[in-house]
Amino acid sequence: MRRTITTLLLHATVLALPLAAQQKDIVGTATSAGQFATLLAAVDAADLTATLKSRGPFTVFAPTDDAFRKLPAGTVESLLKPENRAKLKAILLYHVVSGEVPAATARTLTTARTVEGAAVRIRTDGSRLRINDATVVMADVDASNGIIHVIDQVLLPPETAPATGRMRTGATTTASAARDLLEFAIDRGVPLFNDGQPAATRAIYEVAARGVLALGDQIPSDARRSLERGLRAAANESDDREQAWTLRRALDDANRALDGRRMTTASTRH
Known about the structure:
Blueprint: H1 26-33, H2 37-45, H3 49-53, E1 58-63, H4 65-69, H5 75-79, H6 85-93, E2 96-98, H7 103-106, E3 111-113, E4 119-125, E5 128-131, E6 134-143, E7 146-151, H8 171-194, H9 198-213, H10 221-235, H11 240-269
Parallel strand pairs: 1-7
Antiparallel strand pairs: 1-2, 3-4, 4-5, 5-6, 6-7
Helix pairs in contact: 6-9, 8-9, 8-11, 9-10, 9-11, 10-11
């Protein structure tokens, strides 16, 4: 039976420091290594630093500066612009898995579900561990709040609805995909919140809200307004717990609006 694990994505790691010396959190470990400047700049621009410094534990697939240089010219600069913050956050969360997944465990898996929502593929290639098309060049780097696996390529999420694996056409199927995404976020966020990780919960809820809004005008206007209000209200909160609760209420309101669309559509068929 194929096993999957929940993946919370983000990056940060150390090639230069001895593994036994790592007592810092993921962000501190990456900073000390001196080879993750691009990753850290992206994490900061996406407002995810607090999430990666929170208790965790997280498993992070961390691209080096060289990995970012392999992207097409101008890609990093474009992603760091304020107007592309949501896309950048989704890419970073595609590199993070919730919980500690050492390399020995990863080798027994075929996929891992990320916090962004989409799954990464896991396979072995001889002695090498592959995550999508990237190779793990250093595994099991310990941090105080998780494990880092250093990779040689940036992972890019598929251009599809994260929770469904593919985007279908039509108002009914688009609304269904939106509901799947919101329910996926809640399923992942609740245990993290209850485990004392409100920053991680807030990040998951925000990505889900922005992902639904990106689906366009086929999403009911009531659902869009609920998500937009929730995002604005959360941005004015300074506490991770309050932000998570504000976004959760927005996700619940949007889900009810989407349920209304589904029931209206069904009633017109009979």
